[in-house]
Design a protein that fits this description.
CATH architecture of the largest domain: 3-Layer(aba) Sandwich
Distance between the termini: 31 Å
Mean pLDDT: 97
Largest sheet: 7 strands, parallel
Number of domains: 2
CATH class of the largest domain: Alpha Beta
Number of helices: 10
Strand order of the largest sheet: 3-2-1-4-5-6-11
Radius of gyration: 19 Å
Order of helices and strands: EHEEHEHHEHEEHEEEHEEHEHH
Bound molecules: uridine-5'-diphosphate-4-deoxy-4-fluoro-alpha-D-galactose
CATH topology of the largest domain: Rossmann fold
Low-confidence stretches: none
Shape: globular
Number of strands: 13
């Protein structure tokens, strides 16, 4: 298929693009390179550098690409930042997302695949979290994604734009060539691996007094290549709806630090810090809907395998992508 990928130079987007090209699709990436990297865009893809805010540029890029489906990754995605700068999240994740939808309707594209998040659920009343749980986000990031899911429902109803929204749990790991490089790194695994690389002398644990067995937050880590594969399955005709993407296993912050120490063979000192605002204590996916309805099968479900792939990439690219 001919695919138009917003945010295709970012961490998850770039690895999706690589998998899509390997599967025989054609890809145009649209990215403002604010979080993404030119070097992360597979040379087999076309790259248009632009912002979703630039409606004319966006419409021109869509008209030129004539895609059959849109995969919309471009967004701001930091829970902590959304608590201090909510406006950034609503303006970009909601406002600019609507600009994309308007352009898509104008040009006439039938399918839209959206990167949502388990943060739409907030603090879940039960685990594992299935798609029917109430949506009660506890941070503006999750709220912005929930709002956009609802907007997609209206576009589906009113414009016939078929959509799939994937509620990601914690994306992690790397492919052979592509990995996680945020200019300001806030994510757990890359920050812990910085210690193993000798770029920091300790990592930080945000909250050791949560109601969990070791007092630290529990998350469901999912290999970024497994995430990417689910998006390819969503392109099949007739697939629509919301799907969780996670492995169904939760690991605490301390367990992740231990896994990083084991994989790298390095000692990783950790300092306990106060809780980070907006962090729910436990998030673990129930993802049977994606397995049953899309035929999704995670190939790299184990934390150890995920961390190994991340470690390989960070060791090969200690400074991340060249700017
Ligand atoms: N954490 C630390 N130390 C760090 C970094 C993180 O203790 O240096 C903790 C966090 O407080 C959290 C856990 O490790 O408890 C995971 O934090 P991340 O920042 O790696 O990931 P988040 O769970 O906050 O958020 C990520 C994505 C979101 C997505 C969410 C879904 O960034 O886009 O997963 O769980 F919505």
């Amino acid at each position: 298929m001919n695919l138009f990928v917003s945010g295709g130079a970012g961490y998850i987007g770039s690895i999706f693009v690589e998998e899509a090209l390997n599967a025989g699709h054609r890809v145009t990436v649209y990215d403002n390179l604010s979080e993404g990297h030119r070097a992360a865009v597979d040379p087999r893809a076309g790259l248009v550098t632009g912002d979703l805010e630039e409606s004319e540029r966006l419409t021109d890029a869509l008209s030129a690409a004539r895609p059959e489906a849109i995969i919309h990754f471009a967004a701001n995605a930091l829970v902590g930042e959304s608590m201090t700068n909510p406006g950034k999240y609503f303006l970009n994740n909601v406002g600019n997302g609507v600009r994309l939808l308007e352009a898509v309707v104008k040009v006439g594209v039938g399918k839209f695949v959206f990167s949502s998040t388990c943060a739409v659920y907030g603090t879940p009343a039960r685990l594992p979290m299935t798609e029917d749980l109430p949506l009660q986000p506890v941070n503006p990031y999750g709220e912005s994604k929930r709002m956009f899911e609802r907007i997609l429902e209206w576009y589906q109803q009113l414009h016939g734009l078929e959509f799939v929204a994937f509620r990601y749990f914690n994306a992690a790991g790397a492919s052979e060539r592509l990995g996680e490089h945020h200019r300001i790194e806030t994510h757990l695994i890359p920050n812990v691996l910085k210690v193993a690389l000798g770029q920091a002398d300790h990592c930080e644990i945000f909250g050791a007094d949560y109601p969990t067995p070791d007092g630290t937050c529990i998350r469901d880590y999912i290999h970024v290549r497994d995430l990417a594969q689910a998006h390819l399955l969503a392109l099949a005709p007739g697939k629509r709806g919301v799907f969780n993407l996670g492995n169904g296993s939760g690991y605490s912050v301390r367990e992740v630090i231990d896994a990083c120490a084991q994989v790298s063979g390095c000692r990783i000192p950790a300092l306990e810090r106060p809780r980070r605002p907006g962090d729910p204590p436990r998030l673990v996916a129930g993802a049977t809907r994606a397995v049953q309805e899309l035929g999704w099968q995670p190939r790299y479900p184990g934390l150890q395998t995920i961390v190994e792939s991340a470690w390989r990439w960070h060791r090969a690219h200690p400074q991340g992508y060249a700017e």
